[in-house]
Prior knowledge:
YefM-like fold, 3 strands
Amino acid sequence: MVTAKVIPAVEARVHLGEIMKRSFKKGDRFIVEKAGIPMIAILSADEYTRFIQEREEQFKIFDKIRAKAPNLPVEEVEKDVRVAMQAVRKKHA
Length: 93
């Protein structure tokens, strides 16, 4: 699992160009905190796009399962979605 470096907002502001380069070139991730509270994440645009695509795939699968079995309990549908997502991740790995 890739971890994110936690940095204060002041550091992010001062070193934004460097942070952007590291995220783009090396895939580094950053969590920007203000007053000790995590406020935003910085990651490469490619990684963000992959994240959004995976999320959309999850919802497509969820919607398909829900449409075919509208009376199933939500927990059972979520379990089926997890199993299906594991299969998708293996396919893309």
